[in-house]
Amino acid sequence: MVFAPAIMDCLTPEMEKIAEMEIGETPKVKKESLEKLKKRIEQEPDFYPFMDDKFLLMFLRCKKHDVQRAFKALRSYYLFKEKYSRVYTDFLPSELKHVMAANCYSSTHFRDVDGRLLAIFRVGDVILSSPKQPLTSPASIRNRWDLLQKMRKDFCKSWFKAYLSSLQTRKKWKDTQPNLKIGDIVLLLDDDHLPGSWPIGQVVELHHGTDRLVRVATIKSRNSLFKRNIHKLLLLCPYIRTNT
């Protein structure tokens, strides 16, 4: 299995097949829609966007190569930049040092098995806290707490079903799946805790079954060692050996 890097200049053959199937993109469609979009831009007075093909393709793809809808999205993008110009001009990363220090966001250097970018958010109590509103009795406090807990559980359940489960697809009796390797970065599933507190670690030892397939792995996190069944591990970033 080959994982695509996070930053790419073009689509892989697998991604091209997905693009054709889901948004009808072919080399011919891409060329024609780019030409039509550029002509539409030229017809708009006092509008001079960045005309790079890769940039314009982002708007065409998100609108399934509907040129008129892509143009509206492009126009809205520049109106947003104008309205919130400070974010795009004078904003400095140093203004968000407290966010970076919280270590609540990170990303991998590789895409997942379907070519999607993988970002890791560690959502804490501050973001998940309920909106402030007047409290009139202990009962209302309890009701808000119950509601908050339900919202958190529902979100985690939906997130697991919609995305995390896709990282752990099992095609039994159809395709042979690659074994984990020493050095792989994985997420350890823990049914007793919220996903935001699940540890991330690196595979340091593999334990094979009688069929010579990896069944259990030893994972090293920042502070601990874990031994887990592979069904409780989600591959985030494969180990790539580099020649130096």
From TrEMBL:
Residues 52-77 form the CRAL/TRIO N-terminal domain. SMART domains: CRAL_TRIO_N (SM01100). Gene3D superfamilies: CRAL-TRIO lipid binding domain. It comes from the Eukaryota. InterPro entries: CRAL-TRIO_dom_sf, CRAL/TRIO_N_dom, CRAL/TRIO_N_dom_sf, DUF5641. This is Alpha-tocopherol transfer protein-like protein.
